[in-house]
Amino acid sequence: MKYAHRLVWTAAIAAATTAIAACGSETPEPGASSATSGPKLAVVATTPEVADFVRNVGGSDVVVTQIIKPNVDPHDYEPTPADLQAIATAKLVVKNGVGLEEWLDRTIESAGFTGTVVDSSQGVTLREGGHHEEEGEHAEEEAGEHAGEEEHDPHIWHDPRNAKIMVTNIQKGLAAADPAKADAFAKNLTAYTADLDKLDSDNAAAWAKIPKTDRKLVTNHDAFGYYIARYELEFVGSVIPSLDTSAELSAKQLTDLVATIKATGTKAIFAESSLPPKTAEAIAQQAGVKVVAGEDALFGDSLGAPDSPEGTYLGAERHNTQVIVDALAG
Ligand SMILES: [Zn+2]
Predict the structure, then answer these.
(1) What fold characterizes domain 3-197?
(2) Where in the cell is it found (predicted)?
């Protein structure tokens, strides 16, 4: 069985290699003024966020294949044959890390990829799973529900300071894979890091207008731990009670969440772009608070459509802050 698979994949890889070679004669994209000479580096990036980072650091010297498309839930992703082909022909694979891409190791093995995998999370201070550890009351109960005892929160990018570490890791990976372009990558990194600093200071300024006692967040799933820690918010609860998106609240937990929302004076529940808003809407109705959904839904796991302002990390994060601050200020 395994051997048969290998044959199929070998054929697929050969086809993909031919396709890539055929693309090699393409002229550079318009506006690729910083392009240095030589072939572009083929990079596979797993999530929309990481792919956006690679595009910013790599500029016109890389060709990025993004595996997970916008508004797709990354927690239960199943790779396609096309993903496998892309990985087989890539020079570099860049991942978010922290266990978000459970499918990646086996896919890399199936693809026969022997190149470098850049773990963009290297050096980021990770949060333990769940948000209740400081209170202590639910810690044991929650730990029992998670598969691994040492589960960490993978949503690291929601703190722009972590994003800076991620793009620095990416820059190192790109420079090692294509040393001739190292200067260009370093230059791009400097420019993008300034954008991340600006995002962080703008976020902080927006939050400074909201009293700390009003900074209460209920989201669709538990994706904003790093954001909450960075801007001193309080995590009241989530519709899906875990760091991934597979769990469901029991009837009792739903009732408890409604009661907590009422008791804490939480003003709104925020739906997420990559998850159905139905339960969030029901809870909001029961608790008598507004639900922020539709176009205003938060980008918890994903980015917006590629051509929209929210199609970039910077745009999506600015959207999140604006939507949350507006809802909590009103
Ligand atoms: Zn998530």
Answers:
(1) Rossmann fold (3.40.50)
(2) Cell envelope
Residue (of 152, 124, 321, 164) closest to 244 by Cα position: 152
Q: Compute the mean pLDDT over every residue in the chain, rounded to the nearest whole number.
A: 86
CA 74 remoteness from chain centre? 8
Centre of ligand 1 to C-alpha 293, Å, is: 17
Rounded to the nearest whole angstrom, what is the distance from the C-alpha of residue 71 to the centroid of ligand 1? Answer: 11
**Beta-ladder partners of 298:** 272
Q: How many residues does the chain have?
A: 330
Answer yes or no: are the C-beta atoms of 237 and 257 closer than 8 Å: yes
Q: In whole angstroms, how far apart are CA 238 and each of 38, 130, 248?
A: 49, 10, 10
- Confidence (pLDDT) at 150: 62
Q: Fold match between 3-197 and 203-329?
A: yes
Q: What is the pLDDT of residues 274-311, one digit of tens each?
A: 888 888 898 999 999 999 999 999 999 999 999 999 99
The CATH class of 203-329 is alpha beta
Structure tokens at 182: 């190292």
Distance 221 CA to ligand 1 centre (A): 7
pLDDT tens digits for 103-116? 999 999 999 999 99
CA 75–ligand 1 middle distance (angstroms): 6
Q: What is the distance in A from the centroid of ligand 1 to the CA of 222?
A: 7
Highest mean predicted confidence (pLDDT) among 19-23, 29-33, 75-79: 75-79
Contact 306, 55 (CB under 8 A): no
pLDDT of residue 60: 97
- Domain segments of the chain as ranges: 3-197, 203-329
